[in-house]
Fold this sequence. Notes:
single chain; mainly alpha; 2 strands; 60% helix; 3% strand; globular
Amino acid sequence: MKRILLAFAVATMANGSMAMDCSSALKDELIRRNAVDQAARKALATAPKSKEALDSALQIDADNTAFMRAMLEKCGWPMKSVVGEDAAKAAWRLTQHADMDPEYQVLAARQLKSAVLREEAEPWDLAVLMDRNRRLNDLPQTYGMQYFSAVEGVIEFYSIVSPAQLDSRRKEIGLPSFFCWTSQISKMNDGAAIRWPNGVLFRPEDCKSD
């Protein structure tokens, strides 16, 4: 199935790149594709055992990924000041759903980071995208966003690259400290205990309330 989708994606990209428009029309196209993406996922959630719904969602993902690859090559990552926050978020969501093309996700993350450093994109979007991509490819995460509930509801984190430098990487892109992130996660999970990752520096601080 993945080979079929990738072939479909390459063909679509070849066709779609010819008609790529980096002007204000890009905003409308990103929002339209996001709506199609969300409708397909809603249909799949409603009928999770439906092969038709699954095939439709996968085909839409392949089509959107091909479009995003072509957009990245011709237009670069869409900046908030150009396409608006809704379309910028749509671009991130379509990239999140491009798991069949991890190479594209890496390329997109590089451009997205440049946009984040220029305050043209959201730090949270970059961190979630990068850590999702790395975990799906059996690599340690960069920003410590990926976690799971272990025995007795204790929150644990997937492995983190160079854990002692985690807070420095988070600060670079404008994320709150890892301590404050874990405090937020605990609150979201009814006060669940946190198992502190090995090697991450423990730096308690006062965190801004939500």
